[in-house]
Amino acid sequence: MLQKWITSIGLDIGTSTTKLIVSKLLIANQQNQFTLPGCQIIDRRVTYASSIYTTPMLNDVEIDVQRLTVLLEQEYKNAGISLDQVEAGAVIITGETARKQNAESIVHYLAEHAGDFVVATAGADLEGILAAKGSGAIDRSAETNAVIANIDVGGGTANIALCQNGKVIETFTLHVGGRLIRLNSDGFVTYISSYLTEFLKNNSLILREGEKATFEKLSSICQLLAEETVNYVKALNQNSTLLVSPHTRSSIHPETIMVSGGVGAMMEKQKPKTVEEVAIHGDVGPLLAYHFQSIQVSQAAETTRATVIGAGMQNTEVSGSTVYIGSKRLPLKNIPIIEIPVQQEETWNQQLFQERARASCMQASTIFSAEDPPVAIALSHFPYCSYKMLQELAKIISAEFIACFKGAKCLVVLCEQDIAKALGQALAKQRKELEIICLDQIDFTHGDYIDLGLPVAGEAISVSVKTLAFSS
Questions:
Q1: What residues have CB less than 8 Å from 437, skipping those under 6 apart?
Q2: Which residues contact 140 (CB under 8 A, 6 or more apart)?
Q3: pLDDT tens digits for the chain (472 residues)?
Q4: CA spacing 20 to 30 A to 451: which of 80, 192, 318, 368?
Q5: How far apart are CA 251 and CA 261, in angstroms?
Q6: How many CB atoms within 10 Å of residue 397?
Q7: Rounded Cα gap, residues 87 and 457, in angstroms
Q8: What's the first-to-final CA gap in the chain, in angstroms?
Q9: Whole-Å CA distances, 272 to 16, 21, 28
């Protein structure tokens, strides 16, 4: 069995704090005479965890990229690693920080200076998924067969993921966090997030900047925020003015609710009794943590570092071993994913698939820039595939791709099933001028982009499916 350890990093730039971890991932190519070759990550170990830093800001709307870069360089030295040793991982910018003026440019800059194959990413849904991985919620759902909800509460947002059978089945985000209300040591309100205004008004609670807050008023606000969050998670409420983006809540009721994040970490502490004790960090985090605890949700096994552990240890996966790589372009970053269902009907219908492929490629050609490869075609709803159907698929995919992306020289195709080598060979025969990369065993359900790394064990390559959706 071929094995290889790779170094992965996770850097989480949050509303309140910034932290980094370094981990080792053990990749193994497992195969025997009875099964197809398979490649997977069989061990993940954290080898270094940084201190937790206050996120450096130039002002209320600008992140200090220079101080962040110095911080990262120093932490690499402390961890005893260099850029050329980093083969995987993620730089993720989260919560309110993702709305800051220069967030997008910063996260891309950091990704380019963090290692050869590190994901630059932001987006509430992905943050919720990574936190659920890092907190232990996904593993617990696999072990218990129960629906587990993880609420990752930081400074600016609460990212929620519902997990079942080891997978995330629903995500949503609320404007709930410790730093949405900020206080000085005397209890005067120095900041109130505009996202809370309507919510407070609807609940007959008025709090203004410059006002000296009473403990009773702050307690009432934090209690309402915690109850609003948990009631929405339990599907007792079907809507909330605190939702970050529109969401239709399913009727799924979680059996267990866990809380991670910075606020989750404070749940084990004693209830603050005065405004001064509430404002120890300059915000309402300690009081919000108490009110989550008081409504009997449980503290996650990993709290403050849940997202960064999810980013650094769980974000990287490995493709199947039966892949087709007819290109020397690897590694490739930030390839947009377009999903095309192979079969939505009871039987394979060549004409209907061609219509779907044409519509998807045409739409993508108007959205994405003329990079090469311009997109990765992800084939979903893939049934049993005969030789005849495989040839028809290859003919349609190559024809529609060439028609819509006339200058492209590289075609990337993603499959969930073990069919990539055969499909890749069929595609290569259709268009000899095209470089073909065809990968299988890729779960592209939660993500808009994919990064393709170098081979890590046999023919298998490291991959990261992600989102690059930044908040406005």
A1: 323, 324, 325, 326, 327, 329, 330, 373, 410, 411, 412, 413, 424, 452
A2: 146, 148, 163, 256, 258
A3: 567 787 888 787 877 788 888 888 777 765 554 444 455 666 778 889 888 898 888 887 778 888 888 888 899 899 998 877 887 776 777 666 666 666 666 766 666 666 555 555 555 666 788 788 888 898 899 899 899 999 999 888 899 999 998 888 898 999 999 999 999 988 899 999 999 988 999 999 989 999 999 999 999 999 999 999 999 999 998 899 999 888 889 889 999 999 998 898 899 899 999 999 999 999 999 999 999 999 979 998 877 666 655 554 445 555 555 678 888 888 887 788 889 999 888 888 999 999 999 999 998 888 776 678 889 999 988 877 888 999 999 999 999 999 999 889 999 999 877 788 899 999 999 888 899 999 887 777 655 778 887 776 667 777 777 654 433 3
A4: 80
A5: 25
A6: 25
A7: 13
A8: 47
A9: 20, 31, 49
Torsional sign, CA 46, 52, 56, 62 = positive
Radius of gyration of the chain (CA): 24
**Kind and range of the H or E element at 269?**
none
Q: What is the pTM of this model?
A: 0.65
β pairing state of 376-380 and 332-341: parallel
Instruction: Give me 381's structure tokens.
Output: 């709803």
Measured CA angle at 50 (ends 44, 56), to 5 deg = 130
In whole angstroms, give the CA distance from residue 79 to residue 84. 14
CA atoms within 13 A of residue 235's CA, in its CB half-sphere = 13
**Phi, psi (deg, nearest 5) at residue 225:** -65, -45
Percent helix, strand and coil across the chain, each to the nearest 5: 35, 30, 35
Residue type for 244, please? V
Q: Around 195, how many Cα atoms within 13 Å sit in the side-chain half-sphere?
A: 20
